[in-house]
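Reproducibility note. Readers wishing to regenerate the assembly model reported in the main text can use the exact inputs given here. Chain order matters: entities are listed in the order in which they were concatenated for prediction.
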Amino acid sequence: MRRQKKPCPITEAGIRYVDYKDDRLLGRFITDYGKILPSRLSGVDARHQRQLSKAVKKARFLALLPYVKGHTG
Amino acid sequence: MAKLKIRRQSSRRYEAVYIYDSALEDTAIVEKLDKVQSLLALAEPAEIEHWGRRALAYKIGRHENGYYIITHFNAEPKVLPEFERALKLDGGVIRYLITLHEHELGAPKLSDEELAARRGRSDDDDDDEE
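Running the prediction on these inputs yields the following structure tokens for the assembly.
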């Protein structure tokens, strides 16, 4: 039995290219520790997942997202 | 396979994000930005968007806050090394990122009717309210 495919939330939001400055959007696709959520859990399509992965990494560099959530020091 | 494109015009569109030391005065930041941007020898002035002060997601050295500025400009690729060198030497810049701006990012701006239609359709599945 296969589960029905989820619609891609990024496509649904009308986004063509994921913006690395949109930390609110990116924040929905990272885990509680700040890791990038796999697309099998989020339902993001492959094209957007590739963009998302790069966007999260840029956002981390710019301190918009943490590398590790809950880490202090 | 990526196709090799021959570009006739040498100027390319870039997006740069700067994080300045939030302890600096606003006027000092604008002054520093003007000075460093002048190295780009821009034909038309850069679009500048100030995000202002916000907390960094993690500490960078002793900094916990930064003053964010986003700019868009068309520049010749050959002026960038000198520009980056100046940015690196500037102690007031905590971090910067220059990227090629080849596509509009994010969702296109919706017209008022589209927004209204969207609101009417999906009042309950908006899960990102905070």
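We highlight two features of this model. Chain A has one domain: 9-61. Chain A touches chain B through 23 residues (CB under 8 Å).
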